Amino acid sequence: METPPVSTTGEKDTSQPQQQWEKNLRENLDSVTQIRQQPRDPPTETLELGVNPDPASQILENTQGTEKLVAELEGDSHKSHGSTSQMPEALQASDLWYCPDGSFVKKIIIRGHGLDKPKLGSCCRVQALGFPFGSGPPEGWTELTMGVGPWREETWGELIEKCLESMCQGEEAELQLPGHSGPPVRLTLASFTQGRDSWELETSEKEALAREERARGTELFRAGNAEGAARCYGRALRLLLTLPPPGPPERTVLHANLAACQLLLGQPQLAAQSCDRVLEREPGHLKALYRRGVAQAALGNLEKATADLKKVLAIDPKNRAAQEELGKVVIQGKKQDAGLAQGLRKMFG
């Protein structure tokens, strides 16, 4: 039976009796055994960005399928590297980047040059391969401008833009998408022009970009694309939120429009919050009151829903949508009361 290596402190001393030397040996073996039996913390380097802890790693810890993505990425890396004598450099934690919203994990295949990354207005020459969506970016090399153009409303467009914001010139990367079992998406950034951060823009520039986003969002909403419209309204709001208070009046309209999208997307909690932003500035905003009433009804807050809808009818008694919605809330309330009464009878009957 093999024994663990003994530290130099346990080397044989010819001046000691044999019995004393055996005693020292046993003590050293016990120390080695205790060290080996100590519980080890699970490895965490694959959940870090290699420099400082990032909130993205915390998000991904709670995202289903993330650990599997990391394991697949590391497994692919070991397979591609082969033996350590051929390629001694293995995948490092800094080779992985986690999108903060958990939508993908990026593995750097070829590192880029420099530290600059694409910003608003940067014209990027890119190549994207292997997208699983119904329609992907154009085949071959193409030029995409950050923050500008209808390509951003596509599902693949939003994904590419988020990834490009983390890439350097000349970088090539693979993207693993949760729930996608096919080969990873490959994205290459050959070059890009100088752009600007949003804080570098003048107030007039931010307002102009916000108006463009709002107009595009309205087009998408009318075309039935609530998800794309919500992205446009959200980007417009992010631009305007950087302006000093109270901010332009367009913020109120954008929040109200965003609430309409969120209701269609089945997000009543977010819709109610968007309406709150509107009503903080304009307490009598009819559309915000109505949409918040609908959102509260969907959340089961019937008293709050009734209050909002009655405010709408107090301002506009002929508002047919509010009348119909209030009628639904009344019926829903009666059903709840009947169910509660039946439960009480069973409990005390």
Describe the structure concisely for a colleague:
The chain is an alpha+beta fold and 349 residues long. The protein has helices spanning 18-37, 55-61, 66-81, 155-164, 203-222, 226-240, 250-264, 268-281, 286-298, 302-315, 320-348, and strands at 96-98, 105-110, 123-129, 142-145, 172-176, 185-192.
Sheet with most strands: 6 strands, antiparallel
- Compute the average pLDDT: 75
Strand order of the largest sheet: 1-2-5-6-3-4
Molecular shape: elongated
Q: What structural category characterises the helix and strand content?
A: alpha+beta
User: What oligomeric state is this?
Assistant: single chain
The succession of helices and strands, N to C, reads HHHEEEEHEEHHHHHHH
Percent strand equals 5-15%
Count of DSSP-assigned helices: 11
Distance between the termini: 75 Å
Query: Percent helix among the residues?
Result: 40-55%
Radius of gyration: 30 Å
Low-confidence regions: 1-18, 31-75, 77-91
Number of strands: 6
Features:
349 residues, 50% helix, disordered N terminus, alpha+beta, single chain
Strand and helix map with partners:
Blueprint: H1 18-37, H2 55-61, H3 66-81, E1 96-98, E2 105-110, E3 123-129, E4 142-145, H4 155-164, E5 172-176, E6 185-192, H5 203-222, H6 226-240, H7 250-264, H8 268-281, H9 286-298, H10 302-315, H11 320-348
Antiparallel strand pairs: 1-2, 2-5, 3-4, 3-6, 5-6
Helix pairs in contact: 5-6, 5-7, 6-7, 7-8, 7-9, 8-9, 9-10, 9-11, 10-11
Task: Report on the architecture of this protein.
- The longest helix has 29 residues, at 320-348.
- It contains eleven helices and six strands.
- The chain is an alpha+beta fold and 349 residues long.
- It has helices at residues 18-37, 55-61, 66-81, 155-164, 203-222, 226-240, 250-264, 268-281, 286-298, 302-315, 320-348; strands at 96-98, 105-110, 123-129, 142-145, 172-176, 185-192.
- Strands 1-2-5-6-3-4 form a six-stranded antiparallel sheet, with helices on both faces.
- The relative contact order is 0.06.
- Residues 1-18, 31-75 and 77-91 have low confidence and may be disordered.
- The protein is elongated, with a radius of gyration of 30 Å.
